[in-house]
Amino acid sequence: MNVFLIYFNFYSMISLKFFHTLGIDLYSRGIFFAKTIGIISKYWFICRKLNIPFILLGCGSNVFFLNNYSGLVIINLIKGIFIEEKLDVWLLHVKSGEIWHDLVKYTMNIGIFGLENLAFIPGSVGSAAVQNIGAYGLEFKDICEYVEITNLNNLKVYRFKVKDCLFGYRSSIFMYGLKRKYIVTAVGIRLNKKWCSITNYINFNIKFFTPIKIYNVIYNIRKSKIPDPKLIGNVGSFFKNPIIHLKLFKKILFKYKNIPYYKMLNGTIKLSGGWLIDKCGLKGYSIGGASINTKQSLVILNINNATSDDIICLARKIRIDVNNKFNVCLIPEVRFIGKYGEINPLSII
């Protein structure tokens, strides 16, 4: 422990470049790997003692570091998949450090279906719950039975039923009120044995639906639109698809008859953020080393050693141009991390 404290006294800095998928070359005071909740708690207490910030990452696929981070970065490696078979359902208990897409592949390979629409979404199982990930008509909340969180102060475990998680569009209670001293350590997933396809969101062009066919189509679509972050830095969708009221939608529809949209159950309308960006003439637009992906404009790419300022300036231009043209406000999906912790992205861009 004394060696550890000396390490901090020298203000050593460790590169973050390979621990977040945007790949910006910034630094933190330390990066540590944790395979147990006890180890995570230990580092959390160290950060409190030294009065420095603490952040827990899975794959780093939904964070945008704005500056060098003055605290510790802990990589969650808590693993484990436990399956219980019931008469009509499969019940999965999955530790938060598991890779989400690896979980999807694993269940498909052993004949448990229901996650195929969420294939090839980057990140860990823990972040899937925090963000309420979703794609092609399915969200995490739709297959979630519960989420387990642990209090880092006393290691007490609490189980939240799905109705208590306050899941919204790319949000949950774990993203806001319960993030300071609690972390997601496991999730419960419920998958019906009687499989039903979810195919109303896109044209799959398939005659006879099977889970494997749907998985392959979605995997190939996502792979064709979003570059491998190991080759070209990105966080997937930088912005959320905007949800607007019917009155504003009718005004936009009057002028743009072919606008793609999706009617929500509460009467609001979800628009394609990528389409809005394209209509502003921004497809492929670049600032410094940052560029808008030509195949999916919600994705910002680090194509040539982009700085955080490059990303900020490009994201700001996207928001201003879309708002000026459509009166629609794009909200970042990615978490903005400043020197001392998370920052409201709208205060930056």
Description:
- This protein has 349 residues and is of the alpha+beta class.
- The chain has 3 domains: 2-76, Uridine Diphospho-n-acetylenolpyruvylglucosamine Reductase, domain 2; 81-222, Uridine Diphospho-n-acetylenolpyruvylglucosamine Reductase, domain 3 (2-Layer Sandwich), CATH 3.30.465.10; 238-332, UDP-N-acetylenolpyruvoylglucosamine reductase, C-terminal domain (Uridine Diphospho-n-acetylenolpyruvylglucosamine Reductase, domain 1).
- Helices cover 27% and strands 25% of the residues.
- The chain is built from 9 helices and 20 strands.
- The protein has helices at residues 2-9, 37-50, 100-109, 125-131, 140-143, 211-225, 246-255, 273-279, 308-326; strands at residues 14-15, 27-34, 54-57, 63-65, 69-76, 81-85, 89-95, 134-135, 138-139, 144-151, 157-161, 182-192, 243-244, 261-263, 269-271, 286-287, 290-292, 300-302, 335-338, 341-343.
- A 5-stranded antiparallel β-sheet has the order 6-7-12-10-11.
- A hairpin with a 2-residue loop joins strand 16 (286-287) and strand 17.
- Residues 1-11 have low confidence and may be disordered.
